[in-house]
Amino acid sequence: MTEKIVILDFGSQTTQLIGRRIRELNEYCEILPYNKFPEDTTGIKGVILSGSPFSVYDPTAFGTDLSNIRGRIPVLGICYGAQYMVYSSGGKVEAAGSREYGRAQLTSVDTTDPLLKGIQPGSQIWMSHGDSITSLPAEFKRIAGTNDLDLAAYRVEGEKTWGVQFHPEVYHTLDGILLLENFLNICGSQRTWSPASFIETTVQELRDQLGNDKVVLGLSGGVDSSVAAVLLHRAIGDNLTCIFVDHGLLRKNEFETVLRDYEHLGLKVIGVDAREYFYTNLKGVTDPEKKRKIIGAGFIDVFDKEAHKIQDVKWLAQGTIYPDVIESLSITGTVIKSHHNVGGLPERMNLKLCEPLRLLFKDEVRRVGTELGMMRHLIKRQPFPGPGLAVRILGEITPEKVRIVQDADDIFINALREWNLYDKVWQAGVILLPVQSVGVMGDERTYENAVALRAVTSTDAMTADWAQLPYEFLARVSNDIINKVKGVNRVVYDISSKPPATIEWE
How far are the Cα atoms of 180, 238, 383, 466 from residue 366, in angstroms, in the given order? Predict the structure, then answer.
């Protein structure tokens, strides 16, 4: 990449959202820990300082040396980032009388300032902070306020440096995209980032990186691994071999369906039926974390065995995407999550790692897949957990329980498609509850299983709200499941949001 915006992450929950907004404006950006600014600044057009859960005056708050950045490269501080520049330059930041959270309107806007170009007084913004800037250093100039906050935005005279105490990256700041676009204009950004440019650049980089080496990739049937496979195939052709493991916890008929899809894409895929192996290892296990670890270890064993049948493999490819990378590189130096879906395999198999999508957000992966000509149902496929139905069967996994969930889930997902609701839902599925309930079928009393329907709306899975599906739809699905799925006599609907609940039940 010849040019980029660097976003320094001070721990805000919306840092990834800043990155997504910059990418939506067709400018490449990278998110780095607050203390990891590159020594080589070649191609860095601008720097954005994120928000943070800390107060700048807290002794344990994150801080960094900006002396080699300010005055040389345009800088935009957001919330904590804005307050940090004030505080570290001798200004005052103090606890607000009351926490400023939610909608507000800009007042006394300096419309001549290039950051606020086109933004008028009364424009809605979103506040989220417990501190306020109460005194600016001499060279700092106020450029906007609100009815409740005298200083909502400032610039530093003699520098291309700005700070805002609101969040332009969130949806509720109505002119937020315009403000970020203004900043990119200040930076002189060319804004040539696009799926087509990514594909062209990445295919050439993969050819240079891999040469004539052989690569093996673990397919899951999901969007990320599928797009990674097609991108690699375009770069190296038959030197790529894909392995698709059926751990017995996929959706109904998914193994056969996905294999047909991959054949249509021209990929060389080895399908492995390992259902009995996983069922045996999971027998009697009820703890969710143990189930996940057994499935993860089992996948490594099966994948390793199949991969060793391929001669001269030197690379392991994965569908790792940018949020995985960001979350794996905690700003505190500790790993938040381990995201490698074949974790441990590169070392175990003595393979080098290839992650062609590691700089893309989820929505960008889908755009790249569309640009690659992939089938819509593969690109628009809802997220599905790596452990599959294991996290939707509460308690012990048995083939009979898998059958119940698969049959009920098949009815639910197909109904979403029939009612044109599938694309309006981020993720949906059926959960088998570890309880049985009394029912009546015909003239007989039954004592059978209860299942829960789960459907959420989201943009990035960081937060999610329960999908308000039509009552008529829910009634139809409930009726079909109870009538057609042997072993179920009760259906409930989960109306929990994230947070506090998670999307999956385990």
Answer: 24, 24, 12, 23
